[in-house]
Every structure is written in structure tokens, then in C-alpha cells.
């Protein structure tokens, strides 16, 4: 099929909303119907699996022949267009009834996101972006903050699942808390990246994200004007680092993260 980023966004929104409705309808059962993956704190619910199955089925109907990479069922990236799906980003929040989780669907071409929708099941909000077309929240164009002072920066962050790595991360975040306004841990990378796009956070940094975690939100942040670095792009921050920041504080924050040991976590 021809590459039309606007049409790809429309598909991502349509399918994302359908998956979001399914996820929300299954929320009550989540507390008793879940398993664990890499560690006992890394959970997967029946809704994660059902959401991904729905997305895969609908994409096969709407965009036949295009491969899908998903958090739960995997898949291989290929040359050309690939869909990247996080059926529930923020599963621990979902399990506990904290309304900060999303369904993220992005279209990538040769590994680069060109269109995306991040849908919030609890609120119905829809974040969208396409390459060169800007970033949007329910039809309102987004722009990153105009922050220029590191000491007034609100920084979003995340933790890995392994306890040993979390300990090292906690030391870095405690150190970073002395040089920024404050730090926030919300628990859903896609929405943290969208928060940077909307100016709700001035910046966000995390290690260990999978492609499905950042594929949608990073495009939203970049199209809103953020400086974005993805895993593998900045060895100074660590091989698996994701970074998004308003331009006015991006360089200073990058340097502070390096100084305070972010690459060593």
C-alpha cells in the first residue's frame, strides 16, 4: 500500500480506540487474571494479550500483509513498513486501577516512526503525530515547554524491573533531584513522552524501554519540538537510554545526566 502518514494515523486511532475499549472493559478482572514475565514485578494481564490480538486482527484487515511487532507476541522488523504495538503500556498501573496507561500503535518505516496514536483507555484522550505533520491531543496542536533553566525543570523518569538495576537508578535519580525542580515517576513511558510534548513535563529519561514503549510517544514528543534520543543513539547516556527534552534545557540536562551517573545504571 502507498505510504500516506495521515492515513496511517487514522488507522492507528481507529484500532487504538477499539483496543482501548476492550482494555477498559476487562479492567475489573485484571486483579485476578495476570502472570509475570522477566521478574515478579513485570506483569502481563489477560487484557494485554487480548488487546494485542485485537490490534493484530484489525491491522490484518485494514492493512493486509504489513508485519506487526508487539510486546506480548513479538515479531520481526522488516524493511519497509512495520506496525509496533504496546497493547497496554503501564500494565502495573492498570492492574492497580491507577488511570495512567495507554494503548500505543505506531507505524515505522525502516525502524523510524512515521505515524502514531497513543490512546488512554481511562480518559479516552488520543495523542497523535505523523512525520512532518505535528503532534496533537484530541485535535489540539502540541508544543513543548519553553523552559531554559535546569533548576526549574520538571523531569520524568522510570525504573527497570530488576532490583539490582533499580538500586543504581535510585541513586542517580536521588542525585538528579538536587539539580532540577522536581522529578516524577508515572509508570507509562508512552504517556511520559506525550507529557513532554504537551509541556506537562520539561523532560523525560529512562533506560530499558522496548521499541513498543517509545515508538508512538517519541514521535509525538519529537513532532512537538522535543530533542529526542532513542536507544542506541547516545552511548554517553547508556546503550538503552531514551531521552526527550525541551530544546531550552536539553543540552544542560544531557550533561547533568552524564555527570550524575545515568550511563552507569
TrEMBL record:
> Sorted alphabetically, which PROSITE patterns does this protein's record hold?
IMP_1 (PS00629), IMP_2 (PS00630)
Q: Which family does it belong to?
A: Belongs to the inositol monophosphatase superfamily.
Presence of keyword Metal-binding: yes
This protein's UniProt keywords: Hydrolase, Magnesium, Metal-binding
Essential cofactor(s): Mg(2+)
Q: What class of enzyme is it?
A: hydrolase
**Which InterPro entries does the protein's record reference?**
IMPase (IPR033942), Inositol_monoP_metal-BS (IPR020583), Inositol_monophosphatase-like (IPR000760), Inositol_monophosphatase_CS (IPR020550)
Name of the protein described by the UniProt record: Inositol-1-monophosphatase
Q: What is its EC number?
A: 3.1.3.25
Q: Which reaction does it catalyse?
A: a myo-inositol phosphate + H2O = myo-inositol + phosphate
Q: What lineage, starting at the top, does this entry show? A: Bacteria, Bacillati, Actinomycetota, Actinomycetes, Pseudonocardiales
Tell me which stretches of the chain form a coiled coil: none
Amino acid at each position: 500500500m502507498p505510504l500516506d502518514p495521515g492515513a496511517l494515523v487514522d488507522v492507528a486511532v481507529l484500532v487504538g480506540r477499539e483496543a482501548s475499549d476492550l482494555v477498559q472493559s476487562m479492567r475489573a478482572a485484571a486483579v485476578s487474571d495476570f502472570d509475570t514475565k522477566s521478574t515478579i514485578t513485570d506483569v502481563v494481564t489477560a487484557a494485554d494479550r487480548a488487546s494485542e490480538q485485537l490490534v493484530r486482527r484489525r491491522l490484518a484487515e485494514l492493512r493486509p500483509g504489513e508485519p506487526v511487532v508487539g510486546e506480548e507476541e513479538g515479531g520481526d522488523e522488516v524493511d519497509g513498513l512495520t506496525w509496533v504495538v504496546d497493547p497496554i503500556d503501564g500494565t502495573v498501573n492498570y492492574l492497580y486501577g491507577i488511570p495512567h496507561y495507554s494503548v500505543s500503535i505506531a507505524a515505522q518505516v525502516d525502524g523510524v516512526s512515521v505515524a502514531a496514536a497513543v490512546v488512554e483507555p481511562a480518559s479516552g484522550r488520543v495523542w497523535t503525530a505523523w512525520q512532518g505533520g505535528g503532534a496533537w491531543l484530541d485535535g489540539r496542536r502540541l508544543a513543548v515547554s519553553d523552559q531554559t533553566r535546569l533548576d526549574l525543570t520538571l523531569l520524568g523518569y522510570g525504573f527497570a524491573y530488576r532490583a539490582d538495576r533499580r538500586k543504581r537508578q535510585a541513586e542517580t535519580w536521588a542525585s538528579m533531584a538536587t539539580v532540577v525542580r522536581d522529578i516524577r515517576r508515572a509508570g507509562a513511558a508512552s504517556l511520559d513522552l506525550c507529557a513532554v510534548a504537551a509541556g506537562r513535563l520539561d523532560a523525560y529519561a529512562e533506560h530499558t524501554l522496548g521499541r513498543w514503549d517509545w515508538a508512538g510517544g517519541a514521535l509525538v514528543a519529537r513532532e512537538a519540538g522535543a530533542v529526542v534520543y532513542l536507544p542506541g543513539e547516545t552511548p554517553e547516556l547508556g546503550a538503552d537510554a531514551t531521552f526527550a527534552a525541551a530544546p531550552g534545557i536539553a543540552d544542560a540536562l544531557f550533561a547533568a545526566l552524564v555527570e550524575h551517573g545515568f550511563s552507569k545504571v
